[in-house]
Amino acid sequence: MTTDPTTTAGLPERAARRPRQRAIAHARWETRLLLRNGEQLLLTFAIPIGLLLALSLTTMFSVASGANRVPNALATVLAVSVISSAFASLAIATGFERRSGALRFLGTTPLSRSELLGGKFGATAVVTILSCAAAVIVAVLLGWHPSSASAWAIPVVVLGTAAFAAWGMALAGLLRAEAVLAVANGLFLVLIMFGGVIIPPASLPGPLGAVASWLPSGALADALRACLVDQQAPAPLTFVVLGVWLAVGAGVAGRTFRWS
Amino acid sequence: MPALTLENLVVRYGATTAVAGLSLVADEGTVTALIGPNGAGKTSTVEVCAGLRTATSGQVTVLGTRLPVVGGPAAALHDRVGVMLQDGGLYTSAAPLQLVTYIASLYRRPEDPRTLLESVGVDPGTRTAIRRLSGGEQQRVKCALALVGRPDLVFLDEPTAGLDPLARRGIHDLVRALTDRGCTVVLTTHLMDDVERLADHVVVVARGRAVRSGSVRELVGDEDTITFRGPLHVDVSDLRAALPPDYSVAEEHPGHYRVVGAAEPMVLSAIASWSAQHGSPMAELSVGRRSLEDVVIDLIGEQA
Fold this sequence. Notes:
The structure holds two protein chains of two kinds.
Chain A: H1 19-36, H2 38-57, H3 69-100, H4 102-106, H5 113-141, H6 153-174, H7 177-194, H8 206-214, H9 216-228, H10 236-256
Helix pairs in contact in A: 1-5, 2-3, 2-5, 3-5, 3-6, 3-7, 3-9, 5-6, 6-7, 6-9, 6-10, 9-10
Chain B: E1 2-13, E2 16-27, E3 31-35, H1 42-49, E4 57-62, E5 65-67, H2 74-78, E6 81-84, H3 96-104, H4 113-119, H5 135-147, E7 153-157, H6 165-180, E8 184-188, H7 192-198, E9 201-206, E10 209-214, H8 216-220, E11 224-229, H9 237-242, E12 248-253, E13 256-260, H10 265-277, E14 283-289, H11 292-303
């Protein structure tokens, strides 16, 4: 060990870092960590693509047939990717960052709470978009032809990512890491199976279908099915539902977030 | 000029009081050591100063800014304060240089990450994930993280815990280099050797409040400590009466006594006579200065 680091010139002094620069720096850092994590790559790319192939090429959970099978599968897989990356993975990773003390250390740096949350959302958005892009490429290879209405999927995915990321952060703030792991995975499965993702709300039995329509998962999947399968603009109500979940989730996340 | 001032700091967690009216001043360019038993409130104090926790009451002034920062950019203050946490605090899946480079990007005037890692004894070229490094290496990465923003005030919570003697010496040199350039260091540790080597000012904390403060020399004092083996479980009041009034006498362990005061011939003679009178000739006589550890144990014992 040498003995005098403080006599080094260091990097050139720069203007005070702006909040946006720190948020972007944190987003880049988190994206890098996420894409280096093998389990995360499995969740982000392998599972959605595997699910897309299974739903497109088999009759598993078949709610569509013929030409509709691939776009239907794509809508389902995009919704799964959003919920997986923006909700389950984000909540679990944040919970364990808190447990390891990594968040606590960040709380001693110039990175503020809003910059951290912004950076986490940015990284989650990048990973989700990469995951969705991979699914779209595979869908095209399977014979899907996007229409002009397909472009609606972009704002739907962004809004859905924001809404689920807000609830992922809220969950991470409310519970201990181990509980976050269990609850996030449990909710993920429930939302996928009974929240209008694999089976559309309209096809779910009675009250379950009615409830699913008002869940962010049901609104997200319905909006994606509208633009990818029915080739039309999603119903405005689906945006309203996602927007309300986003607003409430962001409020809860802001109130419950803690560094340690 | 003080870099850190605490006035009557109180931190409570529900019904538990972690810090109960702690006051201290850490002057610019000095090393202040906070020492005391586990649960004395040292880490809670550091957390309040680092902005991780809000004080229940009291005033905290860091580099001239009152905490908590209200209506202003807390980032400007964090830019000048470094913190080495006692537990965790690392993204363990990253390599040291990646993590230090990222943290450097948050600061206005960072150290060069490569040079800094080299200076704390971590190979900046290693691609090994931090979780696979030894405990000592992880400790050094944490130290680098605390220093990468080139702070004016740095809190080091147990910086040498788990380090080998050579690495500890390296951290000592690092702390001296920091104060040489005017940085203020607040050190919390259980290792009295660190304190004796580094601290300009020592604050002994017990039950959440400062029970004594001063330089190491002031705490230890100039008095000799005379230890000897003598009779078992004998009333020492007659020995105390035979010694000058400012001397203290105690049976520390069965048959092992400690007398605090100048080791003058008359005193040694009185001790030998007293021991012989009680049927056990004085043995294992030694004369020396009290250690800081002795002083701290006594102070903590008085508070228990």
